[in-house]
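quick one, 417 residues, struct below
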Amino acid sequence: MNRVVRFAALGALALPLLAAARGYTPAGRCGDFARLDIPSPAGTCVALLADEAEGLRAPRRILEVAPGRYWIADMGSWEPKRGRLLEMTLPADGPAPRRARIAVLASGLDRPSGLTLGPDGKVYVGEAGSVWRTPVGAPGAAPQRETVLDQLPDDGTHPLKEIAFGPGDRLYVNVGSSSDNCRSGQDAPVLPCPDGEGAKPRAAVYEAQLGGPQRTVQRFAPFATGLRNSMALAVLPATSAAPEGRVLQGENSIDYRDAQSPPEELNLLQRGRFYGWPYCVGPRKNAHGYEGRYDCSKSEAPLALWPAHAAPLQMALGPAGTPFAGQLLVAWRGPQASGHRVVGFRLDAKTGLPAGPAIDWLAGWQAKDGVRPMGRPTGLTVDRAGRLLVVEDFNRTVLMLLPVQPSAAPSSSPAKP
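---
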């Protein structure tokens, strides 16, 4: 679940809330950068590349757009038009510990969150109400904005957009639900829920088919529905059995007070199928308030269940030739014990789908007085050098997982993949 979304209505108070959990105390070196005490696999360390000192406010996504050049979607706050597109570069020389350099490419963006490289080589940016693209220009150059989609729903509890490309110029877009559970106050939740009705339902993943000489949108329609907030989307490569690839979705489920329920879900999306929200949670069980009112056998069962309140906020496939190859990487942002970590799931050799237990890449990331705040990973990428980069919105950081150099001290409490 995107827990910060619950504070969206606080408007002007959102930025102070995002700033409240800063507080890393670096100790020693990780490569050429300051080292943070965040448990990681044996033989690795976590480097701090940038934080609020470089002007970060609420980074949600990071993407390497050219060798050594990274773009960051910084949401700014939950207030509209406070977001920015940033460019980060890493210094090649100078005394250690070094700091990344960050330049502002564009400002005044509306809660940007989606960021991906398209098959045309352009970078696609998902703001709350639109998706646009730009070629990658010279370092520090302002983007050349080309609108792809606009007039998308940008209100309610889940206005943020996640975007992911599949084979055949298919672009998948999250259109989150307008509420947590289709309930107003203490009233019984609504049946049918208005979010799921009509030709343009919310709580859905949409598919945009691009085409023509200018790669414009030829068709934009719901792909799968009954999905509360799909901030984690990934598409598996095409195969002979699945020429369009296979779309994976990490579901941010309803906010129960129960720390153990409901589970988050990993869903294998299929065109035209319904996945349960707001009537069903987990393994086709009725959500609170819908007991005896809806038959959950009409919904699709999850591919896998994840810990309650883990809050999957991005998924990415580990590139070949890196330590993350053959894995689905996931940023779990949630504040409970199940969250605040980056994990991987191996792709099964027979099915090609994620299976088995979670592999901890960054875990044990709970708050430690005078050392670190609780981890709040919102986005991740693996660069051309095979290094894992992670951004945190609440803590305003860019982190990198690096191999320990001989001169660096070993991690105090490493996690094992």
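The first helix runs from residue 14 to 19.
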